[in-house]
Design brief:
The chain has 18 helices and 9 strands. The chain is of the alpha/beta class. The chain has 3 domains: about 190 residues, no CATH class; about 190 residues, von Willebrand factor, type A domain (Rossmann fold, 3-Layer(aba) Sandwich); about 50 residues, no CATH class. Strand 4, helix 13 and strand 5 form a beta-alpha-beta unit. The longest helix is centred in the C-terminal third of the chain and has 24 residues.
Length: about 475
Amino acid sequence: MPVPAALESDPAVVGPLGGLRLAAVHVDSPMLRLRAVRWWRDLARLGVHAPLFVVHDIGLLYAVPPAQAHVPAGAPPVPELTRAQNAPELVASYHTLVADLAEGAAPAQRMRLGDDLVVVVLARILDAAGAAATTRPPWPETLPLDAELTRDLEPQLPRLFASLPRQTELAFLDALVRNRLRVLTLVDALDVDTLRLLGMLGPETAAAGALAHVDLLAALSNPASNAVVHFSLELLPSVLETHRARVSGTHAVHGYGGIGRRGTIDSMVLTELAWHDDELARRMLDGETLYYTREQAPDEAARLHYVIIDASASMRGDREVFARGLAIALCKKLQLGGEEVWMRFFDSRLYEVHRARARAPLPVSWLLGFRGERGRNPARVFAQLSTELALLRSRDPRDLAVHLITHGALHVPRALVQEVRRLSHLLGVFILPSGGTLDLEWLDLLESYAVVDHPTIEQSAARARAASKIVAEAGARTIDARRRPG
């Protein structure tokens, strides 16, 4: 379908679409071009302004497999280009750069990254060229997300391209080509494991908007996140084998799951009919009759799990890696068990809460990229926590389980810990420094706790075993809480 005549005079439509005449990646699907429009608009919200065709080319290298995005050898002739600013040579250099980028993006192509991840990858790669460009496109990034605009577009591209000046797009290409080495370095520096983890467990839904992109950028930019990612990928295979806990019900759905004392006549165990009429009546009145029960998923989580992670300066290095990797695995384990998880960091204060219901994406990018820089004040943290738990208990009937991940020197007044323990189940994981010992006066108030010493977190295999044991025990406690009557 041609671009409607009413829109052919609108630079906000003709400008970006006509620029696709210079695209180095060829696709057949109009929906892939529409995805590129979305990336282009989201990049503008992050302050990265680039021509649509550049976003289209580099984004498709990460978003789709090579079979759907063809990169021809060499740049085809574009008669509409003038000799001004050496435009043909500039376009040819750009096409060569895209071909080189395709080799660097090959490992990520097999992952089929989601739109949010593609946007942050583009922001990392194109920000340098955007900063070097002296001018911005004269049209706003407001192209409608309408598939009809990108359908049958190829025959119209020469006319749309020639209808407007293209100096700003050529200026961006000049900046991109001049920063060729930096762009290729950024592509090589992208951690494929981080992209794999974010694609596996998240990222957050697009409804989070620009905030999700900011968290993703922080995760990709944080040097310490690489170690956390690798540790998390060691733990996740066993965690992802978790199946949601089932319970027995009487509704005529799902299959038979067991035998119980409640049910309907049609689900009664047939051997009950062998009783004498009087005895059968007595058994029914006394609730002794046996019925087949049905498999049924629980209507809501048995508990609300509150995972709070120490982000103070005492948790840098190996302890930070262990704490954040453990938090990711623990939260995913609880989620797969059908539980709702709330996550918070703390140092001298409790930071904002991030909620993850069952089957919802974990805020992995936030867990990887968060930085705490406000010192330490454990007493203030526990005072704030007890106040918030009291408010939560007043409106939520579920049990609360607080999982504390911290170091071995978290000195808190015993009275504050008692108040938190009164309001919730309190569990702890203590990561000790080199040569440190655990000597806290309130350990007896914890329902359970685990201690991880420094030699353990220094060894990869021992560290993974310790974290897996903690996660498995948390999963077992969740199952016990579901089975416990009342």
